[in-house]
Amino acid sequence: MNISDWPISKIMQLPDEAFGRRFFISCMMKVSGESTVWDISELGFPEICVIWEMQLLTWQTAGARTEFRVALGDHLPTTAAEVDVLEPVFPGLGQTGAEPRVITSKDWQGFVARKLRLPIRASGRRLVVEFTNTFTPATVMSCILTVSSIPKDIPSWFG
Fold it and tell me: With left for phi above 0 and alpha for psi between -120 and 50, is residue 134 left, alpha or beta?
């Protein structure tokens, strides 16, 4: 059954298995010393998609604190000001302040959000992540999103 003209609110009521194959969109960087680096994913998001899970992971020395900012963009930023004007992937998540907000991790904590089922209109943009290491030793940081596209066809017994 063709559901391409259904509103997103109705599509999101379908069971999980109607959304098909899930895939990862990710960024990973090694940050040496106290510094900020930026990364942009190789893969772009589908026009409209669903984020099922987010993982912010760090491999760092005890006592280290890292910061992430997660946004949608078309190019690799080279300054924090360039990230300031990007659309956040998760509005309102992180420390109170300007979007995209800062999400912190300390001592290997990381941050995992499961069972999100969050629809977004990404319009083909890619994942942009700002990684900040506030400790001298090198830290490896990654942001991994589990994503699927929005179904356009479903078996008639779903609808």
Answer: alpha
* Residue 138 to residue 100: CA distance in whole angstroms: 24
Q: How confident is the model at residue 108 (pLDDT cuts 50, 70, 90)?
A: low
| pLDDT, position 159 | 58
- 158: tokens are 């779903």
**Domain boundaries in the chain?**
26-145
Q: Closest Cα partner for 25 from 35, 11, 39?
A: 39
How many Cβ atoms sit within 10 Å of the Cβ of residue 57? 20
> Residue 31: pLDDT band by 50, 70, 90 thresholds?
confident
Nearest to 127 by CA among 30, 24, 36, 33: 24
Helix, strand, coil share (%) of the chain residues, nearest 5:
10, 45, 45
Topology annotation, domain 26-145: Jelly Rolls (2.60.120)
pTM: 0.92
**Which residues partner with 105 through β-bridges?**
66
3-class secondary structure, 14: coil
- Residues 104 and 95 sit within 8 Å (Cβ to Cβ): yes
